[in-house]
Design a protein that fits this description.
The complex is a heterodimer of chains A (about 425) and B (about 170). Chain A is an all-alpha fold and about 425 residues long. Helix content of chain A is about 75%, strand content about 0%. Chain A starts with a helix and ends with a helix. Chain B has about 170 residues and is an all-alpha fold. In chain B, about 75% of the residues lie in helices and about 0% in strands. Chain B has helices at about 5-45, 55-75, 90-125, 135-140, 140-165; strands at about 130, 130-135. Chain B has a two-stranded antiparallel ribbon with strand order 1-2. In chain B, helix 1 runs antiparallel to helix 2 (about 55-75), helix 2 packs parallel to helix 5 (about 140-165) and helix 3 (about 90-125) packs antiparallel against helix 5. Classes of the chains: A mainly alpha (about 425), B mainly alpha (about 170). The interface between A and B is large, with 67 and 60 residues.
Chain lengths: ~425, ~170
């Protein structure tokens, strides 16, 4: 008990989470008299998770794309396609950010790569400053539910759920979030009736031509995965290979000598996530030995009597969790524990994954540790409180979306069963 | 003002270490992308495949994880909860960081040390992987944790030195 409190204190003071989780596993095995080498053995177990290979390659591809002209071309193309709509620029921002986040894994890259283009553009088009700040900040984690986002893959790995099913399941809930934020943006800016741009087929053609090298990417990757032609790890390899090919060789927007730096930056994120996953495999092993899932199940069943009350308490728990823990650590630590409990209340593991990720998405926007708040505050030189206040309406709308997603399982499962 | 000699020594060591890490990460990730793409080509076009490639790719993930984590330790980018420390006065922040680094060093060393048991057990039973002793591959776990421990030890020394000369904590 004392050990647990000390570890929690160390975690709150900012100790690396992998060390805290590793220490708790060491402590647990030690108390049970088990050999401590189990921790190293569990970390070695990372080699038994076949999907994991997709993570370094997708992450690298996302980092490389964000250094190229791809964000600019994506914005340009969305402008050409949607700019004629009243309030179109806000829609452009949402759609472009969601697409980009799906590929870069909601690591804050979206705000830096796209926010920097969209924020001034929105301002120029006459949108109120606070709206722009909130929009750009909350869009940074939008798209988490779309393939091939990193948290979605990680959930599949940890929960041992089919990745294609998850990819299908995220589609409608993700669109719901987009539609709700889009609807609010249109209503909020109904006074700006002047369309941003007139629709011009020639302009669409030019934008399409400019993006001709990137366009096959979502088609090949998403088409390949959704149709079952590619396994996820194969799609990741093709993506990484193709992105290097176009950005370094064809378009030459990223010089070859920058490649090692970009690879390192991407692998710093990947290593940080995977080492937490590795030590969590150990702490999960310990908790299973110690019967923690069974105790948790028994405890929940004495206090919670229906699926609805379970989902309510789950949601409250996830929102609190998301406010203090990043999505990746939360995934690897908590999912193995709540899976059996959720199953006993008849919650489908695929639906659970979508609920988990969409609830954790709010964690990017809630103080004290919301990553997007910090990145936006840093990037746009605004105080963290003003970013928080600007983001609040978006946060509330997303909260409503998360509640709908939680209590309407068919929204997630419709495309899975079909 | 000239840098104290011990600092420039640490800086030089840091630069060399960073290059080595980056080189290894580039080789691993580049190799992984190449190998995985080559497999797809072989499987779909030539209808053959390298039997060893999938196992090697699985190992490469682990190596990327360990070296990526090492690089994250150097860059001060390990995932953590960073709420309270921001609010503390700077001297206290430094003291907290020293304690946290020490804790991380200890945890990593314990994992690494007991990881050696895994290697010696694997050597004794003569475990093999792809025709090589399996412990060659397994050694990345204790080795990686030992290197991470070393990184945090260096950061801790920096912080302790900073208590006296007020120098920058992070490189």
């Amino acid at each position: 008990m004392i050990a647990a409190l000390v570890l929690i204190l160390l975690a709150l003071l900012g100790a690396p989470l992998f060390a805290v989780i590793g220490a708790s596993a060491l402590n647990g095995f030690n108390q049970q008299g088990d050999p401590l080498s189990i921790v190293a053995i569990s970390v070695f177990g990372l080699t038994d998770l076949p999907l994991l290979m997709a993570i370094p390659m997708f992450t690298f591809a996302g980092y490389l794309l964000s250094e190229s002209g791809a964000p600019r071309r994506l914005v340009h193309l969305s402008e050409a396609l949607l700019g004629w709509m009243p309030g179109g620029l806000a829609m452009i921002s949402l759609v472009a950010c969601a697409l980009f986040t799906a590929f870069t894994g909601a690591s804050g890259v979206t705000i830096i790569a796209l926010g920097a283009l969209l924020y001034p553009a929105l301002k120029h088009a006459g949108y109120p400053d606070n709206f722009n700040l909130g929009l750009v900040t909350s869009s940074g984690s939008l798209g988490l539910l779309f393939a091939p986002s990193l948290p979605l893959i990680l959930y599949g790995v940890v929960a041992e759920v089919s990745i294609d099913q998850l990819f299908r399941a995220g589609l409608l809930p993700g669109i719901l979030m987009l539609a709700m934020l889009g609807g609010w943006s249109l209503w909020r800016n109904r006074s700006i009736r002047v369309p941003f741009d007139q629709f011009s087929a020639a302009e669409v053609g030019r934008a399409l031509w400019a993006a001709r090298w990137e366009l096959p990417l979502p088609i090949v990757v998403l088409g390949g995965i959704y149709s079952g032609f590619f396994a996820v790890s194969e799609a990741a390899a093709v993506t990484a290979f193709y992105v290097i090919f176009i950005d370094v060789i064809v378009l030459r927007e990223v010089p070859l000598r920058s490649l090692p730096r970009i690879m390192r930056e991407a692998m710093v994120l990947v290593g940080g996530i995977l080492i937490i996953l590795g030590v969590s495999l150990a702490s999960t092993n310990y908790m299973i030995f110690a019967g923690v899932p069974d105790k948790l199940l028994a405890l929940t069943q004495t206090h919670v009597d229906s699926q609805t009350t379970f989902l309510i308490s789950l949601l409250l728990f996830l929102l609190a969790l998301g406010a203090i823990l990043d999505i990746f650590s939360a995934l690897v630590l908590v999912v193995p524990l709540i899976l059996p409990v959720a199953a006993s209340f008849g919650v489908d593991p695929v639906h659970l994954g979508i609920v988990f990720l969409s609830a954790m998405q709010l964690g990017y926007l809630t103080p004290p540790v919301g990553l997007n708040l910090f990145i936006a505050s840093f990037r746009f030189e605004r105080s963290i409180t003003s970013v928080y206040l600007a983001t609040l309406p978006f946060l509330l709308i997303l909260l409503v979306a998360v509640i709908i997603i939680t209590f309407w399982p068919s929204l997630s499962l419709f495309l899975v069963q079909g | 003002m000239a840098e104290p000699a011990y600092r420039s020594f640490l800086e030089r060591l840091d630069r060399i270490g960073r290059h080595v890490e980056t080189f290894i990460l580039v080789a691993l990730l580049g190799g992984m992308i190449f190998l995985a793409t080559a497999q797809i080509f072989l499987r779909n076009v030539l209808e053959t495949s390298w039997l060893w490639a999938d196992s090697v790719l699985d190992q490469m993930v682990l190596w990327i994880a360990m070296f990526g984590a090492l690089a994250a330790s150097r860059d001060g980018k390990q995932i953590n909860i960073d709420v309270i420390t921001r609010l503390l006065p700077s001297v206290l922040q430094r003291l907290v960081r020293i304690v946290l680094h020490l804790f991380t060093v200890a945890v990593c060393l314990i994992i690494a040390w007991h990881g050696l048991e895994l290697l010696s057990a694997s050597r004794e039973i003569g475990d093999e992987f792809l025709g090589l002793p399996a412990w060659y591959f397994q050694s990345v776990v204790p080795g990686g944790f030992a290197l991470i421990a070393y990184r945090y030890f260096v950061s801790m020394i920096r912080e302790v030195l900073g208590l006296f000369d007020g120098g920058a904590a992070q490189s």
